[in-house]
Amino acid sequence: MRTEQNLTRLDRVFARLDREPERPAHIDVPKTSRHRVALFASTLAFYLAIVWLVVITSWLVRLDWQVMFFRPYQQWSEIHWFVDYYVVLGQRGPTAVMVAAWLGWRSWRQHTLRPLLALGVSLLLLNVTVGAAKIGMGRLGPHYATTIGSNEMGLGGDIFPSGHTANAVVTWGILAYLASTPRARRWLSALSAVTSLGVGLATVYLGTHWLSDVVLGWAAGLLILLALPWFEPLIARAEAWIFDLRDRWRAGRAGSAPAPAPVTVAVPLKPRAAVPDEAAAPHAPRAPVYLAPGPHTSRSERTPVTPVGSRRPPHPDRPRGTTTSPARPLSGG
User: Fold this and answer.
1) 3-class SS string, 126-159
2) How many angstroms separate the CA atoms of 244 and 111, rounded?
3) Distance from chain centroid for Cα 114
4) How many Å apart are CA 117 and CA 86, to the nearest integer?
């Protein structure tokens, strides 16, 4: 038999999975601290500065054109296949499914909906803010540029800021935001930052985004993660409302279920008491079994019958059917 000391790592993993899911006593929820507020303000200022530099067609726009003419996909063509796969880490569909599956498992293990609700709020903020900025600025991408050296703003495009980069920051950064320990949060924050920046540079390599698009997308995603603590009270109220709705639904199902059939208990039956009239009435005497049924006549009224086979000869002078015989004289002693 395997002892506790000889358990392998795989055994310990399965033993942990077999535990009953339980809600942790304390869940570390990031607070809106001064440091976070200062970081949010500085990131917002950086975001607005990038937008302004592109609007006025500054040196940043000239750098965009220089990178585009450099054509990285031709300079390093041997890594083209890898970049095609790597850029998928910034697409909304695949990344949202993978992260939602992991957070759903955590929600089930901890009996809380906060991980899934935080992911939903972050993706909603991403669609509203980044989508509105894309449509509002209408910048064309490098493949559709019309005038060399121009900022290509207001021409009906939708690539500024980079959606791939912002989505990578939010989708992978939410794992760091929901980490249970400070050490895990630091490591996951660094990993998500490198992954999202790599996704942005992959789009520049493929020629689908300007370099300024990637920088602005990285800032847009970071703003969403920094703003999430302000939505924590809303997430808590939504979780309480969902659980309350679940409890009412369960109570309604229990009320609509058919009533259980009554349990029948065997009751001992007592003998039925005799009816008073029957008990008081005397029983009529029964006739003997040897008597023939019907009315009974006395012996004197019966007609004598000569037994069959009598040896006494009949008297010719006696009328037929007479039963009387002459009286015999009494003999004296």
Assistant:
1) HHHHHHHHHHHHCCCCHHHCCCCCCCCCCCCCCC
2) 14
3) 16
4) 27
Q: Which amino acid is at 78?
A: E
Radius of gyration of the chain (CA): 55
Are 196 and 173 a contacting pair, CB within 8 Å? yes
Cα separation values, 61 from 142, 146, 210, 315, Å: 12, 14, 9, 172
> How many other CB atoms are there within 10 angstroms of residue 294's CB atom?
7
With b meaning 16 or more CB within 10 Å and e meaning fewer, what string describes 49-81?
A: ebbebbeeeeebbeebbebbeeebeeeeeeeee
Structure tokens at 135: 């449509």
- 199 phi and psi, to 5 degrees? -65, -40
CA 298 to the chain's CA centroid:
102
Amino acid at 317: D
Contact 43, 219 (CB under 8 A): yes
pLDDT, one tens digit per residue, over 258-299 is: 655 555 555 454 555 555 554 445 555 555 544 445 455 554
- Its pTM stands at 0.68
- The backbone torsions φ and ψ at residue 58, rounded to the nearest 5 degrees and listed phi first, read -90, -165
Contact 9, 192 (CB under 8 A): no
Please write the tens of the pLDDT for every residue from 3-58. Answer: 445 667 666 655 554 554 555 555 667 777 888 899 999 999 999 999 999 999 99
**Measured distance between the N- and C-terminal CA atoms of the chain, rounded to whole angstroms:** 128
